[in-house]
Amino acid sequence: MSAAPLLALRRIAKSFAGVRALRGVDFELHAGEVHALLGENGAGKSTLIKVITGAHQPDTGEITVAGQPVSELTPASAQALGIACIYQQPALFPDLTVAENIALRLESLGALGRVRWSARRTRAAELLARVGATISPDAEVRSLSMPEQQLVEIACALGAGARIVIMDEPTASLTQKEQHLLFSVVRDLRKNGVGVIYISHRLEEIFALADRVTVLRDGESVGTHPVADMSEGALIRYMVGREVAQIYPPAESAPGEVALALRAVGCASSGVRDISLEVRAGEIFGLAGLVGAGRTELARVLFGLTPADTGEVLLRGQPVALRSPQDAIAHGIAYVPEDRRRHGVVLDLPIAHNMTMAIHRRLFPTTWLRFGAERSLALDYIRDLAVKCSSPDAPGGSLSGGNQQKVSLARWLATKPRVLILDEPTQGVDVGAKSEIHKIIRGLAKDGLAVLLISSDLPEVLGMSDRLGVMRGGTLTAIFPAGTDAHTVMAAALGQAEKGAA
Amino acid sequence: MSHVTPAPGNSRPWKARLLSHEMLLLYVLLAEWLFFYFAGTTTNRRGVVVGFGTWDRQFDILRHSCEIGLLALALTPVIITAGIDLSVGSLLGLSAILFGQLWHDAGLPIPLAIAFTLVLGALAGGLNALLITTLRLPPLIVTLGTYSLFRGLAEAITRGSVTYTDFPESFLFFGQERWLGLPTQAWIFFAVAAAVWLLMHRTTFGRSFRAIGLAPEGARYAGLPVGRRVALVYVLAGLIAALAAIIYTARLGQAKADAGTGYELFAITAVVLGGTSIFGGTGSVHGTLLGVAAIAVLKNGLACLPVVMRMNAAEEMSGLLTGALLLLALTAGVLPKMLSKLRPRRHAPAV
To answer: What residue in B sits closest to A393 (Cα-Cα)?
Structure first.
């Protein structure tokens, strides 16, 4: 390998509103190398990619491309330096042809803005041939399969003279056969001296394709190794191998009766199938798994947003039909959604309105608003949950992420639920608010609430849960007792279950 | 350990209140009114005061504002849910014809005919609601369709020629007389305004409309019955449009198929001028009332200006100035935001 790496990152750090997404990442990519980037959800992979493509400016650290220090990387300058990113979902215009899509990325305006169709087609055909694709330049992108669209993206990258190609989970939606096609294209790229950064959760792909692997953990790079020197077990250890940095509030109560029971619940339209589990009053049942494993989808089924079409849901032993959120609320189920800016809090409405939104019927039985009652309820929750705000009339959007989450939580606590589903309750929340939210959750369980805690933050879900289920591919693959080690859970989430102690 | 700074009563500072959209519109309305009072009032040869500054003229403005005012009241909840209803003007025409038919052809007594017309108006609104909520079609397209459908039906029923007239005096009282000093229909208008104001600002319905307008998905996640609430605003719009048709018929003493043509656009203008966001979520009923008043005063005041009278261009001038006023109001709403966006960039510290 040549002396000057194609891309070198030194001590890259980046924070968002006080949350440190990257704490110090070192990364090196050589020409003719496939370099895998590995890390659990939230380890900082996406942020790192955005730094490399110029979408985010790092707070500190330096970037060198082919030996030249780069002071300020913007999306345009990254492209000029030959950096291209192939996303999981290709960003092409479905109604234009392949040649037109390629032209949109690569062509500059000719004299008088005239389109030279033949040159455009020839160039597209040439580039497609280089990635080994047998796609007609005249095909509409709409008619292409997902891997074909990815090939078009790669062709665009090559046409732009990309020397560094980033592939973000390119195989997530591909069949086995399509994967092999993609792999051979990646190998070709390597042969031609392109450096490929390859991101994937599938360990077997990394072993099949990559030359070296860098593991990210909590926003730091914890080491780069030749893939040949690694085993799957060792990689998982690297991904999770942290000391428990945070103290989680201990369980204080013995779980009571079964509050929520699922028997072979499935929903074809959202890809959830055959899920059976029980959550007791006073118990925190954690749900771990990779992004896309079907955990949020399960929550949406339980909350009636996408009703189940098979199986049975029992609440305190009684089978219930959950056809809509209103049904779910009436049966004492509350759901604090993952995307709080779109679903959890209406940003333009005052905090008080947000907090009472799910209890209109109870708080205002005549539909007549009672401002006094609303205000005192809001003030109670603001005090109990320590929401930092200027007044209950301040709009939800004026709060920080953690405080918005508390408002979202207050809305659902106000419904006096028996079952509380929390979906990524501490995502994008700063460390202080995070541990406050943990204490609140533990307190709620102590008061007899059955809590279903969905979290991609492995230490959190390990530290908080009384029992822990792991989902993969839309179904529950394992249930572990409290105190299970991170390695076992991660292995189950990655589908290496035979090594887990299930 | 409360983090709330105590805020006695309503926490909005008085400065923000004085500069709210509604207050600004009130100043504009007052300025308009004073201008026309001084420029549009004259004494004729016989020494009688004529023009804008007479009670008769003021009552006339009120009388002529009621129908468009009612439609604007109907549209306020619709627009706050981020919807639109273009069919209200056509529905006014259809309802007028149906009312005439029920009374004249079917021989129903006036009160019963009114009741049936209101029910039919609500049903027509229900058709909009059905198409929008169950088929999930965009309100703009659905009501563009019913806009043509309702007007076409009205014309088909009358074959473009029948006009219902000779209504009894007792009915015309609602449109042409005064009661307790004000034009009769003004009382109906004020009553509906009060009802819609209470619905929007004092009940959980208004709350849900706003939430739906701001974040339809968020409202669903909060367990609000989004479909039912959206349906309600269109049914209500149909009902109020039918009421406007009754008043229209009573004012002119005749029901014909082209009643209310183009009223929907005046009504939308009044709502938006009144500070309701066309994207939904924000707005108020009192703002809408001010918007209606600002347009009505402008239109009638211009007709009283000697210079406009000489040119015989009241219609053209009022269209022009209403448009200008609307654009001004919209820009005034966006301008502060744009300025505040520009400012931090200019003063951004070099990193």
So the answer is: B11
pLDDT in tens, B258-272: 999 999 999 999 999
Asked whether residue A315 falls in the same domain as residue A345, the answer is yes
Q: What is the mean pLDDT of residues A88-104?
A: 86
Size of interface A-B (CB pairs under 8 A): 89
Taking CA–CA distances from A337, the nearest residue in chain B reads: B221
- Write the ipTM: 0.87
* Virtual torsion, Cα B100, B106, B110, B114, nearest 10 deg: -70
Q: What is the pTM of this model?
A: 0.81
* Domains of chain B by start residue, with CATH: 51-329 (1.10.3470)
Nearest residue of B to residue A394, measured between CA atoms: B11
Task: State the pairing for strand pair A467-472/A450-454.
Answer: unpaired
Q: Determine the distance in angstroms separating the CA of A425 from the nearest CA of chain B, rounded to an integer.
A: 16
Of B5, B210, B223, the CB nearest to A391: B5
Q: Give dist(CA A152, CA B287) in Å, integer.
A: 53
DSSP string, A300-360: HHHTTSS--SEEEEEETTEEE---SHHHHHHTTEEEE-S-IIIII--TTSBHHHHHTGGGH
Kindly tell me the burial class for residue B307, based on how many C-beta atoms sit within 10 Å of its own C-beta (0-12, 13-18, 19 or more): exposed
Query: Which secondary-structure segment (H or E) carries A280?
Result: strand A272-280
Give contacts of A369 with chain B, Cβ < 8 Å. 202-204, 207
Q: Is A439 on the interface with B (CB under 8 A)?
A: no
d(CA B302, CA B317): 7
pLDDT band, residue B2 (cuts 50/70/90): very low
Distances A89 to A32, A396, B223 between C-alpha atoms, Å: 25, 32, 31
B23-28 average pLDDT score: 90
Summarize the confidence of residues A199-213 as an average pLDDT: 87
In a domain, A183, yes or no: no
Q: What is the pLDDT of residue A194?
A: 92
Instruction: Flag whether pLDDT at B4 surpasses 50.
Output: no
Tokens 């009643």 sit on residue? B259
Q: Do residues A332 and A418 touch, judged by C-beta distance below 8 A?
A: yes
Cβ separation B217–A342 shorter than 8 A = yes
Say whether both A29 and A112 belong to one domain. Answer: no
Say whether B223 and A386 touch across the interface (CB within 8 A).
no
Q: Which amino acid would we find at residue B109?
A: P
* The pLDDT of residue B7 is above 60: no
Q: How many domains does chain A have?
A: 3
- Domain assignment of residue A10, given as a range: 1-75+163-170+193-242
Last residue of a domain, one of A161, A184, A207: A161
- Contact between B232 and B138 under an 8 Å Cβ cutoff? The reply is no
Q: Are strands A258-267 and A310-315 parallel, antiparallel or unpaired?
A: antiparallel
CB contacts, 8 Å: A337 with chain B = 221
Q: Does residue B346 register a pLDDT over 60?
A: no
pLDDT score for B11: 47
Within-domain flag for A187: no
- The answer to which of A1-10, B291-300, B339-348 has the lowest mean pLDDT is B339-348
pLDDT in tens, B122-150: 999 999 999 999 999 999 999 999 999 99
The answer to whether A305 and B221 are in contact (CB under 8 A) is: yes
Strand partners, A22: A14
Per-residue tokens: B69: 């005012």
**Cα B257 to Cα B90: distance, rounded to the nearest angstrom:** 9
| Same domain as A103, residue A223 | no
